UniProtKB/TrEMBL annotation:
Keyword Lyase (UniProt): no
Source taxonomy: Bacteria, Pseudomonadati, Pseudomonadota, Alphaproteobacteria, Rhodobacterales
Keywords, ordered alphabetically: Membrane, Transmembrane, Transmembrane helix
Keyword Glycoprotein found: no
Protein name per its UniProtKB record: Transporter family-2 protein
One annotated Gene Ontology cellular component of this protein: plasma membrane
TM segment ranges: 37-58, 70-88, 94-115
InterPro entries: YdcZ
Amino acid sequence: MANQILIATVLMAVAGAMIASQAPINAALGRSIGSPVGAATVSFAIGFAVLLIATILIGDGSSLLRAVKAPPFLLVGGAMGALFVFAALWSVPILGVVTTASLMIFGQMGAALLLDHYGAFGVAQHSINVTRVLSTALVAGGVILSRW
């Protein structure tokens, strides 16, 4: 279990660094092709291709066919991802990378407090408490310090 915690911690730190890098890269792509929406589309198309190849290579291709049987509300994640990519690449030139990333983290933590509290979508339930609210408030403070 300790190894899994370490691996998950490192993986998420690396993924966080990639998210911070993704927004300015996509913003530069948007400037290069003259369209932020076009850049988000290209980003998603490449991500789709990578995931499709990975899904097939690991032998899970048939799982894609089962998606049509999933409850429709579970398919909204792709739309959320599209909005996230567009919002990030559009906001970076205006707010800067630090403020954009801080706001992303603040939004994620606020939603995570509620998702954990209610055990939404089958995640383990973790009640809202002072420590969790304070950690979110500290990120909000970081947003303010990063911008103003």
